[in-house]
Amino acid sequence: MDLQSDMNKVRLEFPILERILPNGKPLIYLDNAATSQKPISVINAITDYYTNYNSNVHRAVHTLAGEATEAFELARKSVANWFGLPSGGMVLFTSGTTDALNLCALGWGKHNLKPGDAIVLTEMEHHSNIVPWQMLAKEYDLELRWVNVDSETYQLDMDDYKSKIIGAKLACIIHTSNVLGTRNPVERLVEIAHEVGAKVVLDCAQAAAHEKLDMKSLNADFLAVTSHKMCGPTGIGALLIASGIFEQMQPVQGGGDMITEVFKEYSIYQENEHKFEAGTPRIAEAIGWSAAISWMEGIDLIAAHKHTLSIARNASDGLKEISGIKVYGDHSNEDISGVVSFLHESLHAEDIAHMLDSMGIAVRTGHHCAQPLMRRLGISATNRASFYFYNTMDESKAFVNAVKTIVERFG
């Protein structure tokens, strides 16, 4: 699909983009790094499940259960295929990236790391890829090592990484920053980690929305991904694990569907993905995610990224011309995502966000669950406008003009 020439057609597939807000302003949605909007095909797929074959999956032999089970497991295959899962790897459904990273920490880390082992983190990490490892480190006496971020270039200090990874057992790395938009050189980071015998978990929550990730090419041991940032529903994500990892993990939750037999004295666990999916799984959400993947297969993601980058770059360049505004992130870099974080020297970020909302423009404000990075940058919060392929250049220009108006009136 040609995003430039068919933008009106693309936008029509996202009903919410036509919304007029209570204040009478048309919606300009620039909070895509928090969650993307959903095409009508995803909405219809979820409605179809609830309308026509709503049933629990696995075990039951009636027609609805069979249809639901088939659709649910097809969704698992869709996720595996979309992310290029190598042979022998597995897709463990979770509630999202946060749940996937916690599953990695408790299902693998708890049983494979011993007191004194080191985990490498970066100052760029989202709290979801920090707090679970802090909790594990405290309980099992593990060492946490932090890789510095250059506050001028907004890049990881590679020399610092090479130093910190020596002797470590695990590296936990964000693929693409939700604050700076920086795409880390993850292929090289994984290679360096593996050279010293460390395993790697990649937080790909932001990356999956902007590029076609291939787990085989990335060669990571774990990928944590989520549906809702890539046009799918909320409430579902996955931990993708490389071949040979599954056998090293133990379940985190107990209950139905993750067992084969339960006795008074002990239980025997499943030997497939269900071992880590206790209870009724996220059926409607999985079906919706599968529909989102099918929809995204019709999009040229390379062209989509170029389009997103062009309108994000327009916003970044425009904001830099406004007195008192500082933009965080290098938007001249072709690998950067659609995130544009900025701060005014005297106007509070939340005040700017409220005033933008009164103009129909939705942005996010705060520390973006990345407080170590905020401290490295010497700030406590930013405004964040995050663009996606269904946004337009006109929206980007309207956003810049709105910020300019706010600053001229109140700055």
Return the average pLDDT rounded to an integer. 96
Output the CATH homologous superfamily of the largest domain. Type I PLP-dependent aspartate aminotransferase-like (Major domain)
Q: Given the structure, what is the number of helices?
A: 13
Uncertain runs: none
Total count of strands? 15
Residues in β-strands, percent: 15-25%
Alpha carbon gyration radius: 22 Å
CATH architectural category of the largest domain:
3-Layer(aba) Sandwich
Q: What can you tell me about this protein's structure?
A:
By secondary structure, the chain is an alpha/beta fold. It folds into two domains: 136 residues, Aspartate Aminotransferase, domain 1; 253 residues, Type I PLP-dependent aspartate aminotransferase-like (Major domain) (Aspartate Aminotransferase, domain 2, 3-Layer(aba) Sandwich). It is 38% helix and 16% strand. The protein contains 13 helices and 15 strands. Strands 2-8-7-6-5-3-4 form a seven-stranded mixed beta sheet, sandwiched between helices. Helix 5 links the parallel strand 3 and strand 4. The longest helix has 20 residues. The protein is globular.
Concise synopsis of the structure shown:
This protein has 411 residues and is α/β, with parallel strands linked by helices. The protein is built from 13 helices and 15 strands.
Feature tags:
single chain; 411 residues; alpha/beta; Aspartate Aminotransferase, domain 1; Aspartate Aminotransferase, domain 2; 7-stranded mixed beta sheet; 4-stranded antiparallel beta sheet; 16% strand
Topology (SSEs and partners):
Blueprint: H1 7-12, E1 28-29, H2 40-52, H3 63-82, E2 90-94, H4 97-112, E3 118-122, H5 131-140, E4 143-147, H6 158-165, E5 170-174, H7 186-195, E6 199-203, H8 215-218, E7 222-226, E8 237-241, E9 259-262, E10 267-269, H9 283-296, H10 301-320, E11 325-328, E12 339-344, H11 349-358, E13 361-362, E14 364-366, H12 371-377, E15 382-386, H13 393-410
Parallel strand pairs: 1-13, 3-4, 3-5, 5-6, 6-7
Antiparallel strand pairs: 2-8, 7-8, 9-10, 11-12, 12-15, 14-15
Helix pairs in contact: 2-9, 3-9, 4-5, 10-13
